[in-house]
Amino acid sequence: MKSIFYVITWLCLIYIGGYQAPLRAEDTGCFSYVKQLAEQRSAQAFVKTPMMQVDTGRITYDHYQHIKFRHNKTFWRAENLPFQLEFMHPGMHYIQPIELFTWENGQAHPIKFSKDYYDYSEVKFLNLENDEPRMGFTGFRILSKLGGEYAAFSETMVFQGASYFRALAQDQHYGLSARGLGINTSLEGKEEFPDYTQFWLEKPKADAKTFTFCALLDSPSTTGASRFVLTSGSHTDMEVETQLYPRQDMAQIAVAPLTSMFFHGENSTHRYGDYRPEVHDSDGLLVQQADQGWLWQPLAEVPYFNVGTIPSKQLKGFGLMQRDRDFNNYQDLEAWYHARPSVWVEPLEDWGSGQVKLMRLHTESDTTDNIVAFWQSDAGMQFKHLHYRLSWRSTDPEAHKLGKVTATRVTNKAVDSMPGHNNRIRFIIDFNQLPPLKEPPTANITINGKAQAKPMVVQENPYVKGWRVIAVLFPDSCAEPINLSVQLTSGGNPLTETWSYPVPQDLCVAP
User: Fold this and answer.
1) Under a CB-based contact definition with an 8 Å cutoff, are residues 54 and 131 in contact?
2) 405-to-295, 331, 396, 434 alpha-carbon distances in Å
């Protein structure tokens, strides 16, 4: 009878992830174990992690902001390790617990929730004494020395909620989010949000330059094992490798999804009465293709659900970028939009053919994310191994040597120089970082859709140390999408990236 009890107990521990199956001596990293666990879990019916049986609604936004992690309890601080951890308290809508383990020499050791980690001295009228046994962590922060060896430890990355995470490089403030996986992301009303339910955090050595950790991904459609290798500094880079084990077919697998916010910018015709000239976490989508070079598509807030597609046979990278770093263009002393990170996604294997998708939604607030970018492979369900690098940065990738778009402005209002043309849309595009030129560059225009264009005006713009292109578009029909592209060249050679702009439906007026 005892033997049966021990077998049942052992199987239960495997199921909840508390027992670490033996690993080969040469394979002591957490990734192999988590892949085994994810594969086993995929053969079982999905069971969502129960929400905490705690009235976390009593922990209001104000309470949550004043619950502080005790810095003397920061994990691995006493050992002065180069990467350290702080754990996220439950509260507000963060009520789904995660399990945390350290991983050392092929063995896992659970990190248990305790109120001793937190300072509640600034929280009034909140008593959690009877709730502690039912409480758990909802995420964690990674701290490192972003400013170099002699800098103080500061927050570098945070995981909290579904498979969301955010990170910072030196001198940045949090902005856009990344996710471990998206499912049916651009299929309106059908999106599925997988959860990272368990994490294994490999204890770094005293001289470690990287921090490795693993996570179990779970959802009704798939399980997955993810490994992350983090390097922090002036750029914060993280290698991500995920193996999926589908439970069922998925209509769409969104790889390396990025989620951001664009409320209004210099290309907006409506600013909702906001005193701030621009409000956005990102201002453009940058794409690099092996056969077509660099493409820049400015972001825009649209009054409708919209999904754009950029096909690629050999993607080199894509990202949501915050190029505008001038405080004067934001005037926000609290949000620091000028210091929001750009995130660049670089495939670390051949992703084959597919599309970069850009999803835009309507928003009337800067508190709501309305921009999503991701990769979708033409291989569909066969694309189960995801391997790429994420880079949080303040500049474009170093490989981008061409001239860049610095501003886009759009108008369809009548002006004195073109009276009577109510159906025209005028685009003013500024480029900079071009090489010195002996004569003005040539502006090449491409129109996809039913529209005509006037000959473009190309002017030197000393205020951006570059060139301005003015393109005037006359739609023939607004029934189908229209896309306008412009690139500056000299002698047939590209001088700049390609500027690409989907004509907004609300600005399109057919004759």
Assistant:
1) yes
2) 10, 22, 12, 10
Q: Is residue 43 situated within a structural domain?
A: no
Angle at 322 between CA 280 and CA 296, to 5 degrees: 110
Q: Which residue has the tokens 């086993």?
A: 40
pLDDT one-digit tens code per residue, 379-411: 999 999 999 999 999 999 999 999 999 999 998
pLDDT over 70 (residue 140):
yes
Please, which residues have CB within 8 angstroms of residue 259's CB and are 6 or more apart in sequence?
Answer: 164, 176, 177, 178, 179, 369, 371, 372
263 domain residue, yes or no: no
The neighbour count for residue 237, using CB atoms within 10 Å, is 19
Checking if the pLDDT of 121 tops 60, the result is yes
Say if CB 363 and CB 371 are below 8 A apart: no
Gap between the Cα atoms of 194 and 224, Å rounded: 9
Query: Three-state SS for 15?
Result: helix
Residues in the chain: 511
Number of domains in the chain: 1
**Of 41, 48, 139, 47, nearest in space to 87 by CA:** 139
Higher-confidence residue: 215 or 478? 215
Please report which helix (H) or strand (E) contains residue 165, including its range: strand 164-167
Q: How far apart are CA 245 and CA 226, in angstroms?
A: 12
User: Do 220 and 244 meet the contact criterion of CB atoms below 8 Å apart?
Assistant: no
Q: Are 453 and 472 in contact (CB under 8 A)?
A: yes
Distance CA 346, CA 327 (A): 29
> What integer pLDDT is reported at residue 62 of this predicted model?
84
Would you state the pLDDT for residue 137? Answer: 97
Residue 191 lies in a domain: no
- Answer with the residue of higher pLDDT: 271 or 78: 78
For the stretch 38-60, pLDDT in tens is 999 999 999 999 888 777 667 88
pLDDT of residue 248: 97
pLDDT for 36: 98
Per mean pLDDT, which range of 5-19, 326-340, 418-432, 455-469 is the poorest? 5-19
323 assigned to some structural domain: no
Q: Which residue range forms the structural domain that includes residue 444? A: 404-502
Cα distances (Å, whole numbers) of residue 377 to 11, 251, 308, 345:
37, 12, 15, 15
CB 376 within 8 A of CB 359: no
Contact 215, 199 (CB under 8 A): yes
Tell me the C-alpha distance between 22 and 28, whole Å. Answer: 9
Q: What is the CATH number of the domain that holds 471?
A: 2.60.40.10
Classify 41 as helix, strand or coil.
Answer: helix
pLDDT above 50: residue 14: no
